[in-house]
Amino acid sequence: MSLLSLFHRSTNRRPSRNPGRHKIHKIVGGIKPAANKARSLRSRIMSTPIPEMLVLPLLQHKGTPATPVVKPGDHVLKGQKIAAADPRGVPVHAPTSGKIIKTGQCTLPDAAGTLVSCLMLASDGKDEAIETGLSGDFRNMSKVDLVERIRDAGIAGMGGAGFPTHLKIQTSTASDIATLIINAAECEPYITADEALIREHARDVVKGAEILQYVTGAQQCIIAIEDSKIAALAELKLAIADSAIEIAIVPAKYPAGSEKQLVQAVTGREVPFGEFPASIGVLLHNTGTAFAVYKAICESEPSISRITTVTGSTLKTPKNFHVLFGTPVTFLLDLCGIDRVLLSRIVVGGSLMGNCLHDMDAPIIKTTNCLIAGSLEEFPEPLTERACIRCGFCADACPVNLLPQQLYAHCRCQSYQQAKDFGLIDCIECGACAYVCPSHIPLVQYYRASKSVVFQQQTDRKNSEKWQSRFQFYQYRQKRESEQRIQARAEQPSHPQQIAQAVFSREKARQEISEAVARVKARRANLIATSTLSSPSLSSPSTEPDEKP
Amino acid sequence: MKTEVYCSPQQHSQLSQHSTGRIMLWVIAACLPGIAASTWFFGWGLLLNILVVMVFAVLLEAVMLKLADKPVKTHLADNSALVTGLILGIAIPPGSPWWLLFTGICFAIVVAKHLYGGLGQNPFNPAMCGYLLLLLSFPLNMTTWHLPTDTLFADQQFSPLSWTSLQYSLQLCFPALAGDGSQISEYIDGFAMATPLIEYKLAGNSTVLAALENNSPLFARASETGWEIINFSFLLGGLFLLFKKIIGWQIPVSIIVTITIMSLLFYEQGSTAVYGTTYLHLFGSATMIGAFFIATDPVSAATTPGGRVVYGIFIGIAIYGIRVWGSYLDSIAIAVLFGNFCAPLLDHFCRPRIYGHSTRPSQ
Questions:
Q1: Which domain holds residue B104?
Q2: What domains can be seen in chain A, in order of their start residue?
Q3: Of the segments A2-16, A184-198, B200-214, which one has the largest average pLDDT value?
């Protein structure tokens, strides 16, 4: 009897076991590096204290930099717009109240350590917020209005690329979006920002996803999350209980969270070469972006902070921070109790695609999802590069199905045409190949160098084509002009009758001019006469209206 | 505060199979069961062979690296010379004189490997090049197998692992040690073939099956089940490499499947001796070491997944064809070198479709 009931229960439960769970498709390649995520997830997200000085770069995203709308000396409030943007950029807001000290330059925490102009904000510690309009239900607002609000809130993709969110929505409205994927598959080692965010704010993330789905008009919205994030998954399941959003549980494999790979895993389709996912009706947004959208629409708070993982073996208490943009990296590291003696490198992002920090005083910006303060033991010096033995481990690891070892051979030989043929431009630089290479060849570095050469060649070719066509037009114009001159000379009057005609016409013109001059003089004299006559009766000019010339 | 700046990825896999030097050591380790079985059944000859060839290989490698102006220590640490030495040492009949071993390994390391540009640049499997040179130049030495357990020594049998056996092997390898009046050197004329494949003509049945039927002890040195046990040991080592993902499954599986199909297809029961059973072709020959250890040499093999399958099929066909219709009996070497010739072409035609492209790359 009990066995039977067990059976019944299990059969009954089956359809509802995975409510809203989405079918997952296979992605090729991939690696399974040590996740190193547990340490930063031990404590809850902590809001950082407000630092004395905030450094706010005017370019924290992909696109054009914002233009300051405040001057040094101005007092600003939390959430006040301090730099406005053109349609291809996003504005910058003051993360706290205080005084703008000066405009200057700062290093971005990106791969190149780019220098950009920035605003320095000295906080007054009061954290006074600017008055904001009340926010209602987003379903009562128009889509255009919502996109405008998202743009005004200064939201750019928080996953790392930093593409302005409103642009992504706008480009997608042109094409029909069937599926909106919220990327919570944080596959890179060390990063736990999205996981922590979902653990503590799953409802808000889901709400943000709903707003995004409404704005983009997507038929279905799927939150893709890795199967290793058990606690976050449980929270998410609770949060989606009364919404139409589905969950896609992707296997914990790097780089499942990469845009193209996630599209493949969730929809089973591939993003065509050189196109955005929108071309196949798919749109991706990061979890952090969804949260920022929720904040902007439902709480009227612009994008002034984010969740950033601060971890690494040199830190005593690694954790996730709710950190204001512009907070210096050193400030965060000190909060975690950094051991500067052990520190060998600071990685921004995960350990596979992340870049090294150039300047410890660089600020946290909209795309900074993780900081790893690693020791030499954790991040050993790269070993000597050995000869490629064509073992093919790299090809097995490549998520794009390239043949990295052959690509490497072509890149090394600088035969770029061949390299392009072997998919150089298709490489997503995930680093899986270099991670497994037994000969410790820095493959990604070779590909990046070759890519920049290829792109340089393309620009050069484009430029040379442009200059060539201009030069050809210049030659053509010169030729045409000389021909015209010759033609004009040929057409010059040489016949006596023609000359006479020309002289005649010239004299006729002169005569006409003198006649016109005489007419004008007469009229003027007439005008003066009438005005003197009518001067006593200026008060009633209507008496002689017809006399006016 | 200044920190170092590196290009991504910031970390590298710490797994031992993701390091060239360790991979080579794993390959050597995977050969150990086969070598142990061989030593158990046939005495010290093979072990001595391997050791001598390995020493020569490392010395020659060091010299060539020095001549090529490469850092000797760093490059020796990739252990690739050891593996070349190991494979050649297993291939050359035990009891061969040192100069034969030296000639083979010299051609393998100097010509087939370093004259082509060193590790990673050689189009042909160096060990097999060395083996083929010896086979063509010294056919008698290369088909003479001195085995202490040979039936020809029946009157003076001694254990393969005994001191006498070691002396015997040493004297065969370094004839100078023998002096003139040694008793053992008289037996040099006795020989047995490399594998039971040729014995099949005389013996007929597979010996392990026969031994099992007769309840004779499998591992007793006199049971003549040696070759099968050795092949099973190499198979075990090969499966270990597969498990460690050091070699791909494509090459060994396609070779074994091809040989199985070929031998089933052309099997004529008893009519012609050399068309042996599938079992004989797989376990009574060098198929296992060839499929798992020789053909899988990554440098000279095909590297695309599809290319590897075709490469294995080609080698399988070549192995069977040469065995059955050619004049060489167990010629893994020729088959593998034939496969090496095809590898670049196979790689060219078997490139996988790249993500986001509807067709395979232009060919």
A1: 16-192
A2: 19-335 (3.40.50.11540), 393-454 (no CATH)
A3: A184-198
**241-270 in chain B: CB under 8 A from chain A:** 245-246, 248
CB A373 within 8 A of CB A315: yes
pLDDT > 90? residue A145:
no
- B5: which chain A residues are within 8 Å (Cβ-Cβ)? 113, 345, 356, 358
Tell me the one-letter amino acid at A135: S
> By percentage, how much of chain B surpasses pLDDT 90?
42
* DSSP class per residue in A473-523: HHHHHHHHHHHHHHHHHHHS--SHHHHHHHHHHHHHHHHHHHHHHHHHHHH
H or E segment and range at residue B306: helix B305-325
Q: Quick one: pLDDT at residue B193? A: 38
| Predicted local confidence at residue B159, as pLDDT | 62
For A437, name the nearest residue in chain B, comparing CA atoms only: B18
Q: How far is CA A13 from the centre of its chain?
A: 44
Beta-ladder partners of A84: A67
B353 shares contact with chain A (CB less than 8 Å): yes
A299 close to A195: Cβ distance less than 8 angstroms: no
Q: Is residue B160 part of a domain?
A: yes
Q: Which of B7, B246, B361 sits opposite A422 (nearest CB)?
A: B361
Of chain B residues 282-341, which have a CB less than 8 A from chain A? 298-299, 301, 303-305, 308
The answer to whether residue B300 is domain-embedded is no
| Cβ-defined contact of B23 to A264 (cutoff 8 Å) | no
Query: What pLDDT does residue A194 have?
Result: 93
A184 has which bridge partners? A225
| pTM of the entire predicted model | 0.82
